[in-house]
Amino acid sequence: DDEEDVKSMENVMLEYAAMDRELHHYMRAIEETVDQIKQDKPEKIPDLKSLVKEKFDALESVNSDSDLEKNEKYMYFKDQLKDMKKQCKSFNDNDDIEQIDEDLAVTQSQMNFICPITQEEMKKPVRNKVCGHSYEEDAILKIIQTRKQQKKKVCCPKIGCSHDDVKGSDLVPDEALKRAIDSQNKQ
C-alpha cells in the first residue's frame, strides 16, 4: 500500500511538472508575441490569440516525458524519497513510521517556505491577513504596484486561492514563518 502511495505521489509530481512546463511555454509564447508586435508595429493588430497559440504549439511540440523528470521540484521530491528510504533501512519497524511522518512534516514545511511568486525560499515573508497565504515581501509589493499602475486588482498568487483583491494594507510580516525558515537553515 505504501508503494501505491509513493507511486501516486510521483504521478502527482509529474503532473505538476507538466503543468509547470505548459505554463512556462504559454508565458513565453505571450512574451514572444508581444515582442513581435512591438518590432513589426503593424497598422492593424493581428489575431493575438492565434499568434500566441501558434508560438505555444511550437514550444509544446518539442516536449518529451524525460523533460518532466528534470523538473526542479520533481527532482527534489525524488531526492527526498531516496533520503527517506535510506533512513528507513537504518531504523527498526516501529521507528520507521515515526521517522517517515517526521520527514514528511519537514518536507511539507520546507515547501511552505517557497514563495508562490518567485518559487524561491522566502527571506522576508509577509502574510495576507485576508486569505492567510504568505509571499516574499518585495515580490508581492512589486506586483501590487504594477497592477495599481494598470488600474487592475491583484489576485492572490497562491494556486487555488480565490482572493482577488490583494492590497498592501492586507500584508503583515510573518514572523513565525521567518523564524521557522531561519531555524531550518541553521540545521
TrEMBL record:
<dbReference type="GO" id="GO:0000724">
    <property type="term" value="P:double-strand break repair via homologous recombination"/>
</dbReference>
<feature type="domain" description="SP-RING-type">
    <location>
        <begin position="100"/>
        <end position="186"/>
    </location>
</feature>
<keyword id="KW-0436">Ligase</keyword>
<dbReference type="GO" id="GO:0030915">
    <property type="term" value="C:Smc5-Smc6 complex"/>
</dbReference>
<dbReference type="GO" id="GO:0061665">
    <property type="term" value="F:SUMO ligase activity"/>
</dbReference>
<keyword id="KW-0863">Zinc-finger</keyword>
<protein>
    <recommendedName>
        <fullName>E3 SUMO-protein ligase NSE2</fullName>
    </recommendedName>
</protein>
<comment type="pathway">
    <text>Protein modification; protein sumoylation.</text>
</comment>
<dbReference type="InterPro" id="IPR026846">
    <property type="entry name" value="Nse2(Mms21)"/>
</dbReference>
<keyword id="KW-0539">Nucleus</keyword>
<dbReference type="GO" id="GO:0016925">
    <property type="term" value="P:protein sumoylation"/>
</dbReference>
<keyword id="KW-0833">Ubl conjugation pathway</keyword>
<dbReference type="Pfam" id="PF11789">
    <property type="entry name" value="zf-Nse"/>
</dbReference>
<dbReference type="InterPro" id="IPR004181">
    <property type="entry name" value="Znf_MIZ"/>
</dbReference>
<dbReference type="GO" id="GO:0005634">
    <property type="term" value="C:nucleus"/>
</dbReference>
<dbReference type="GO" id="GO:0008270">
    <property type="term" value="F:zinc ion binding"/>
</dbReference>
<comment type="similarity">
    <text>Belongs to the NSE2 family.</text>
</comment>
<dbReference type="InterPro" id="IPR013083">
    <property type="entry name" value="Znf_RING/FYVE/PHD"/>
</dbReference>
<keyword id="KW-0808">Transferase</keyword>
<dbReference type="InterPro" id="IPR003613">
    <property type="entry name" value="Ubox_domain"/>
</dbReference>
<keyword id="KW-0862">Zinc</keyword>
<dbReference type="GO" id="GO:0004842">
    <property type="term" value="F:ubiquitin-protein transferase activity"/>
</dbReference>
<keyword id="KW-0479">Metal-binding</keyword>
<dbReference type="GO" id="GO:0016567">
    <property type="term" value="P:protein ubiquitination"/>
</dbReference>
<dbReference type="GO" id="GO:0016874">
    <property type="term" value="F:ligase activity"/>
</dbReference>
